[in-house]
Amino acid sequence: MNEMQLLTWVRGPGLNLAVGIFVLGVLWRLFEIYSLGRKKDLSAPRALPGASGWRTIFRRTLPAEGMLKKAPVTYIAGAIFHIGLAIVVFLFAPHIKLIQSLFGISWPALPSQFIDLVTIVTLVAMLVLLADRIMNPVKRFLSTFEDWFTWTLTFLPVLTGWLAVRHLLLPYTTMLALHILCVELLLVFLPFTKLFHAFTVFGSRWFIGAINGHKGVAV
Hints:
single chain; 11 helices; globular; 219 residues; mainly alpha; 77% helix
């Protein structure tokens, strides 16, 4: 298989297969979560559960008091990485065109020069987080294969995409094919790894806040 055949496959059957597994995996995981159910709490609510849920989403998004000073790398580099990744994925013109071709929706894109800068900052932030995990003995001890694997799954699409746009390392066609392939691997594994928190982070925070609010527990 030459580079053009590889690019044709990843842009056609490979992409369809990856998106199919991604959609089915997400639906299955969400079904698993929401079908668990829980017994109805018959006690009188001590606060408005919905309001407590939304308040918890906001409060848990910000660092807890004192934690920014104790773990600045985790919070600062983590925030930069997540925000940067969202900008690159959803505000880069070629990505918007791909989403439009798949789902028929689109929105304005940011200038490519700005996206290039954000991509570099995102890559640096991810490398800083990786170095912190390796050098911190507690984080290194708690890290499992899945942590290293999901970091790699997230890092490679950003790196290969930047290299493709910059026409670096490999011919453009080959690098573009590798970028798309890395994205497809990310889509395939996302529903079945810790990366699934992208779909559950706000829902779980709301649920915790609502439950604690019902009990009158401060969150």
